[in-house]
Amino acid sequence: MSIIRQLIVSMLLVAGAAGGFVLYGQLTAEESGSAGNQRGNQAVGVVVAEAALETVRSRAEAVGTTLANQAIEIVSLASGRIVEIGFEPGEPVEAGTVLVRLDDAIEQADLAEAQAMSQEAVSALERGRRLRASNNIAEATLVELQAAAGAAQARVDRAAQRLDDRAVKAPFDGVVGIRRVDLGARVDNDTVLTTLDDRSEMILEFSLPETFYGQVTRGLPVTARSTSFPDRSFDGAITTVDTRIDVTSRSFRVRATLPNPDLLLPAGLFVLVDVTLDEREAVVIPEEAVVTEAGRAVVYIAADERAERRPVELGQRMLGTVEVVSGIEPGELVVSRGLQRMRDGIAIRYELPEADDEAPAVGREQVASPAGDVG
Fold it and tell me: Rounded to an integer, what distance in angstroms lies between the CA atom of residue 228 and that of residue 205?
């Protein structure tokens, strides 16, 4: 074979190879474009939830201590030996009930003597008045008799009071505490006999950070819970807000009143306090439906089988949900799952949520603190 024929054959082979390569590239490009168009036209499967209108309750939490509405230590106004104890620890007593009685023989004798002297002074005064009517005594003598009768009555009153002080009485209705003394013991006015607590209502004292000062007012409802009564809660209302903020703790004291008709709550009990600051109707969506883009909160609305990107303003955060202040209307559907492939205008497919599916039930109460803590 000549050199010319060899060159011609080589050129034909190269041309055939080049044509085959070009044809392969065109076919590959067409297949890729067709696949890309199919992927572009395929809808993305997502899970949606309905924006619901619910009651949102803002609250503040604290720890507090219960105090009796009235609480005193019972002491005697006199000194002496105990001859009678008229109460049992833990029993309710009425105002005026004799709790402890001291020996009073001397005081009774003193009263009897004062009464006798008073009776004598009164008799003398009556005779003086009759004599003065007939001008048989001077006016000055009658005045002296009147003064003597008054002094005698004063001695009677003083003796009666000393006798009464030998009986230690309850000053108000309440529950007596543990007995601190025994029968026959000698006591004075420094000896604590027992305690008396009025627990018909309990005072709940607690402190809140200064950031809440403008929101806490008289009448706000509070709920108290204690590990001592795990299945019960006690409802009351704020009655007093301190006028000063502690410069060290940056907090202020608050007092609330809790009804205690069954006398379950004792004084000094450690409780968890929940203060309701505000209640309002708000639009609530699942927290997982919110994404952050360029520092802004964004949700994707499922509208006409397309995803619509919409910036929103958020409010309180609750357990698994978040309040939307603006940007969404109740009843709109938001994408809650499948957000990693979301962009504005993309085709989506989904099923409408059931009543107990992704969306919270309408009308359910949501609880949150102003700081956004889970309630």
Answer: 18
Per-residue pLDDT tens digits for 305-358: 888 899 999 988 888 889 899 889 998 999 988 888 888 888 888 887 765 544
- Residue 120 pLDDT > 80, yes or no? yes
CA 315 to chain centre: 22
Q: Which domains does the chain show, CATH number per domain?
A: 44-57+280-368 (2.40.420.20), 61-67+198-278 (2.40.30.170), 75-187 (2.40.50.100)
pTM of the predicted model as reported, rounded to 2 decimal places: 0.62
